[in-house]
Amino acid sequence: xxxxxxxxxxxxxxxxxxxxxxxxxxxxxxxxxxxxxxxxxxxxxxxxxxxxxxxxxxxxxxxxxxxxxxxxxxxxxxxxxxxxxxxxxxxxxxxxxxxxxxxxxxxxxxxxxxxxxxxx
Length: 120
What we know:
Layout: E1 3-7, E2 10-12, E3 18-25, E4 33-39, E5 46-53, E6 60-64, E7 72-77, E8 82-87, E9 96-104, E10 107-110, E11 114-118
């Protein structure tokens, strides 16, 4: 079955960095739209970054929320079926549970999330 397993969360000081990873299994990675979402307490889940790849070596597209542009970078390792989120210059408002999402055709799958806390 489809599995998405996030890792890499933790506690970091403002201005620090973290790298999140999501290991995917149970589906064809090529063509899947892979995304990171986050949800803070009392707030709705929001899109952070997304990356698509249709199989050609140069056919990759990324998209970022305005709040993270220039600070976060999403990438995918198609051979390992993983996506990563490099988060730099972290701010307290980035504190959330971060979720990996796979959109395949008309179906969406979610991981269980990993907590990121930015605090001094």
